[in-house]
């Protein structure tokens, strides 16, 4: 199967919500609000990047987005990846990896210093994400599930990471 990654368009909003909902349905760490989170971030103008994967028929089968985060060490240019979603019918086929790599390319082009993610270490380690000494999430999260990786920065700073208020309110 071939998937093509592109920027989301306004017409994609409904399909993105459906993919995000399907991808997180029954996930042990999901609270069922991920699709609404994307909608609220979009409405707040807080998405630095929002990419979709489409199949040969042009149907949205995956989505990834990022929004700026604030490090209390006053280090600018960091992004939070949230969420990454692939429709269950298309998982384990490289769609998620293609979306993450495309997001990294976009964020590097925008000059982002690095990216943080709350997620499954077994999945995100393959992209270079790792838990970092001294870098903490503003939320209480399971050990090892808050990870970071530098994009253009030489190091991952020690700091507390604060997400966009839309995420913090979720």
From TrEMBL:
It comes from the Bacteria. It comes from Microvirgula aerodenitrificans. Gene3D superfamilies: 3.40.630.30. Keywords: Acyltransferase, Transferase. Pfam families: Acetyltransf_1 (PF00583). Residues 3-154 form the N-acetyltransferase domain. The keyword Cell membrane does not apply. One of its GO terms (molecular function) is acyltransferase activity, transferring groups other than amino-acyl groups. SUPFAM superfamilies: Acyl-CoA N-acyltransferases (Nat). This is GNAT family N-acetyltransferase.
């Amino acid at each position: 199967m071939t998937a093509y990654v592109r920027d989301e368009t306004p017409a994609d909003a409904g399909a993105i919500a459906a993919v995000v909902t399907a991808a997180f349905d029954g996930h042990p760490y999901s609270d069922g609000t991920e699709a609404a989170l994307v909608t609220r971030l979009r409405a707040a103008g807080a998405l630095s990047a929002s990419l979709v994967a489409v199949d040969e028929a042009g149907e949205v089968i995956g989505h990834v987005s990022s929004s700026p985060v604030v490090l209390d060490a006053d280090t600018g240019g960091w992004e939070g990846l949230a969420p990454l979603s692939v429709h269950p019918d298309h998982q384990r086929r490289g769609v998620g990896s293609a979306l993450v790599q495309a997001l990294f390319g976009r964020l590097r082009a925008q000059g982002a210093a690095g990216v943080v993610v709350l997620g499954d270490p077994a999945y995100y380690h393959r992209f270079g994400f790792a838990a970092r000494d001294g870098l903490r999430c503003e939320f209480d999260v399971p050990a090892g599930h808050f990870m970071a990786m530098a994009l253009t920065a030489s190091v991952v700073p020690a700091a507390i990471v604060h997400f966009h208020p839309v995420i913090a309110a979720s």
